[in-house]
Write a structure and sequence with these properties.
Blueprint lengths: L2 H9 L21 H15 L4 E6 L6 H14 L3 E6 L10 H14 L5 H11 L7 H18 L7 E6 L6 H13 L5 E7 L8 H11 L1 E4 L5 H12 L5 H11 L3 H14 L5 H4 L8 H14 L3 H11 L5 H8 L3 H13 L3 E4 L2 E4 L2 H10 L2 H17 L4 H8 L8 H16 L3 H12 L5 H15 L4 H14 L1 H9 L3 H8 L2 H12 L8 H9 L33 H16 L4 H12 L7 H16 L3 H18 L2 H19 L1 H17 L7 H16 L3 H11 L8 H17 L3 H17 L9 H11 L3 H17 L3 H12 L6 H15 L2 H17 L3 H18 L2 H13 L17 H11 L4 H8 L3 H15 L4 H7 L23
Parallel strand pairs: 1-4, 1-5, 2-3, 3-4
Antiparallel strand pairs: 6-7
Helix pairs in contact: 1-4, 4-5, 5-6, 7-8, 9-10, 9-11, 13-17, 14-15, 14-17, 15-16, 15-18, 18-19, 19-20, 20-21, 21-22, 22-23, 23-24, 23-25, 28-29, 28-30, 29-30, 30-31, 30-32, 31-32, 32-33, 32-34, 33-34, 34-35, 34-36, 36-37, 36-38, 37-38, 38-39, 38-40, 39-40, 40-41, 40-42, 41-42, 42-43, 42-44, ...
Amino acid sequence: MTPLVDSLTSHAVHDSPAPAPDRPAVPLLAEHGHVRAALEQALDQGARGTGSSLLITGPAGTGRTILLDDAATAARQRGFTVLHVRCSYADRETPLELPQRLTQSACRLGAQRLWFPIARQAADLLRGLPAEGVPRAAAPRGLYGVLGRLAAPEAAGPLLVAVDDVHWADEDSLRWLVGLAERCRDTPLTLLLSLCPGTEEHGAGLLADLTLTQSRELPLRDLGRTSVAAVLEHHLGVGPEEEFTDACMAATGGNLHLVASLAARLAQLGHGCDARAASALPGIVVDSIARSFDGQLRRLSPYAPHVVGALVVLDSPATPARIAELTGLGRSVVASIAERLVRLGVLAPGPAGVTVRHPVLATAVRAALAPGEAEALHGRAARLLHRAEAAPDAVARHLARALPSGEPWVLEALRAGAADRTAAGDPDAACGHLRRALAEPLAPEPRAALLLELAEAASRTDLAEAAAALDEAIRLSPDARRAVRRTPGLLDLLLLSAPPEQAEQTALALAGPQPRDADPALALRLYHCGVRGPLPSPSVSPAAGGDTDRHGNTDDGGGPDDGGVFAGALTALTRLRRHGESAAAFAEAHKAARSEFPSTPAHVMSHLWAAEVMIHTGRPDAAAALLEAALIRTRRWRHRPLEALARSLRSLRLLAAEGPAAALDDARAAVATLHACAAAPSGPLATLVRARLVHLLTLAGRCEEAGAELERAGVPDGPPVGLAGATHLFARGELKTTLGYTEDGVRDLLECGRRLREHGLAGVLLPWRSSAARALLEAGRDGQARELALEEAEEARAHHAPGILGLALSAVARTAGGTAPEVMDEAVNLLRAHGAPHELARVLTDQGVLLHRAGRTPAARAALREAVHLAQDIGAAPVLERAAAELTAAGGRMPRSRRKGLDSLTAAERKVAALAAGGHTNREISKFLFVQLRTVEIHLTNTYRKLGIESRDQLRQSCRPSPGLPGRTTEGRTEESSPGP
C-alpha cells in the first residue's frame, strides 16, 4: 500500500457526509414526489447497467440534502457502491478537492474488496499534483477511466456518485464533473448532484453547462399548505388547526428547513398548534435558524450579514442606496450582495426595493443582533427616514427602538407617529411611541402634555395605564388640569373605569386647592361618573360639559362641535337620571344625536349617552342607529371601552324590543371586552355592565350563570355609589328573589331604592319597587307589596315611564280586590302599546292568574296562551315556566310555537345563520360577533332544528346571506357542513 493510500484510509472514516447541522427529519412530501420518482428511475437504470446524471436544484432549505441522503440510502439497499461527499465553502480554494474526497471514500470502501487496486490507482493519479502544468489536467482525465472500471460488474458493480452542494466545488473539480456527466451515458454510473442557484461566485459557466446540457435538472419549490401541516404534525404529534398552519406558512413561506426548524422549536417549547397559538408565532425565535443562516451569509460575503441586518432593522422594502447609506458600504457592493440574495431566495424583490422573504428568518436575525448594534442601526434609520420626509410612523417605529437623544425632532416625530397609529386604529403602537417619547429628557409642562396624549391613546385598550398617565399629568401641571376639564370624554371614561377610591383622588386633584369654587360643569360630570366629593352635588344641569364658549364648544380641538354635542347629551342624561323628565330628556337626546356621524371618541360617548336616554324613555328603535354607528367607529378605532359600553346599551335596546335571549350575546361581549382592557371590576362602568348581564341572565332563566357572574364581579358589599351601584343591587336582588331567597332579595331591592335617592337619582330608572312587590306578594306580605307598587305607579305616571308603570299596575292589581281586572287591563294595554315584550309576557301571566281565580277560565286561558307564545318567542324561561304551569292549572294545553321557518329564529340565531349562509366559518362568525365559538354552534344547531335542515348548503337556500363580513370565495377550502366546529 502506498503512503498516500495509507493516509487516505486512515483519515476517511465515512463514505457519506455527516448530517447537516440542525436539519430535522421530515415526512414524505408531495413537493418532493417528482424528484423521488426520477431518482427511483435513475437507480433502476443504474442497476441495469445504464448510467445517468441528475441535478437537484433549489434555494437553500428546500430539501436537496434530504433527497440526496435518501437516494444514497436507497442505492446501498439495492447493492450499489456509493461514493457520497458534500462540498463546503473551504473547498473553493483547493484544486481537485472533490476528486480527492471521492477517492478517499473509494479507498475506504475498497479495503476489503476486489476493486481496491482500482481505488489505489486513483490515489496514485492524484498524488503530488503540481499547481500548474500537464499532470494537473492529466490526473482528472485518468480518473474517468478509473471510475469506469470501478463501475464494471466484475469490480464494484452499479456505482452511485452523489455530490451535495456542488456550487462550492473548485473550478477544476467542476470541470471534471462536467466531463464525468458527459461520460455517464456510456458508463454504468449514476451521478447525482445538488445545487443551490445564486450561491456560486466562481465556475458560473461550468455550473450552467452542468445544469443546461449535461444533467437532467430536478427543481424543488417551497412547500404548500398541506405539506406544511404534515411537517408540523410530524414534530408536534398532533394535527395543527387551519389558522395555525396559515400562520406558519406566512412566517416561513413554505421553506422546508424553516418550517422544520420552527416546528422543532415549537415542540421544544411545548407550544400548541391551535388558532390562539398562531398569534404568538411572530415572536418565536428559532436559534438554530440564526446560527446556520449567519454562516451561510458569511460564506456568501463578509458584508452580507450587514446588508440583511439593515433590511431587518428597516423592516420595509429598501433600495441598495438606502441600505448603503445605513450600513456605510458602497452602493455597488450592496447591489451585488442583494442580487445574489434574491437569487438564493433570501430576499424578495419589489417595486420599492428588497425585503427579507421569510418573517421567521427576519425574526431570527433580529434576535441575533447585539442590543447596542440594533439600537444604533435604528437610530441611524430614523434619522435617514426623517431627512427623507418619510411617513411619521415609519420614523417613530425606529425611534422607539433607539436610545434617547434629547433632540427636538425626535419628540415631534414620535408624537406624529403616535397620532398616525391612533388614526389608523392601532392604539397599542401609538402608546409604544408615546412611552418612548417620555424617555426623552423633558420639562414638567411638555411631559404633562405628553402624558395626556398617552392617556388618550391608552384609554382605548388599557384603562389602567391611561388612568396612571392622567393622574401623573394633572399632578405635574396646572395646564394639564385645565386641559382635562376642557376635554370632553376622556376624564369621564377614566373615572367610570377606575376603582372608586382612585376616582375620588383624581377628582380631588382636578378640583384644586379650593374645591367649592370649581366649575359646576365639572361637578356634573363627576356626579354622572359616580364620584363622591370633593365638589358639591350639582342642583341644576349646566348647558356645557366644561369650560365652553357661548356656542357650547370646548377649545380642545378634539372635533367639530364635540363640546356642544357632549354638553347636550350630558344635559339629556341629567334630565333623565336626576329629574326623571322623560319628554325633556328625549328631546335633548334627539337634538344631541342629530349631528353628523361621530368623528371622535367624545362624539361617540355623547351618542351613547343619547342612546341610553332614548332606551330608558321608551324609544329603543330611535337608539338603534346611534348604537350601530358607535360600534362601527369604535371597532375601526379599536376603542374597546366605548365598544363595550355600546354593546351593553345595545343589549338594553334588544331587551326592550325583542326580549332577553336576543340581548345576551351583546351583554356577554361587553363584560369580556371591558375585562380585556383592564377596567377595574369595582369601578362604575364594569359594575354597571356586569349588572346588566346578570339581570338578563336572570330574565332568561340562567340563574346559575348569573350567580357565577356576580362572584366574578369582585364588587364588595358596598358597591359604587350612583346608578352603577344601584343597578348591581337591583340585579342581585332580582336573582335572589328568583331563586327563592325572598328576604335577602327584597333587602337588596330596597337598598337599591335607597341608593338612588341618596345619589339624587330618579326612582323610575329601575323598577325596584315592583320587583320587591312581586317577591313580597309571593311571600304573602300583600300590604307592604301594595304600598311599594302604588308608590311606583304614582312616580311612573308623573314621569311618563310606561314600562315601569305597567309593571307597577300589575302588582297593584294583584292586591286591588274588586278593581283588579280594570287595573290589570290598563297594565296590559300600556305595555302592549309600549312594545315591551318581556314585561308584557309577565303581566299577561299575572292577568291570566287573576282571571282564573275570578272564575273567568276562557279569558284566563287566552291571556296565558298569549303569555306562553310571547315567552317562547323572546326566550324568557322563568315567565314561560310560570305561564305554562298556570295554563295547565286553568285546564289549557301548551300551544306549539306560532312562528315557523325564519320567523321562528331569535335575533341572535338569525344573525348567525345569515353569516353562515354567506360562507363564513364558525370561528369567523364568533370573532365578528364577539361571542364564544360554542355560542355560534348552539345557535346554528337550533337554527337547523327549527328550519328542518341538515347542512350549510340547505341553509344558503333557506336564509339570505349577511353582508356583515367581507365576502370570500370557498374555492379550494372545505366548507363546514354542520353546526359543529
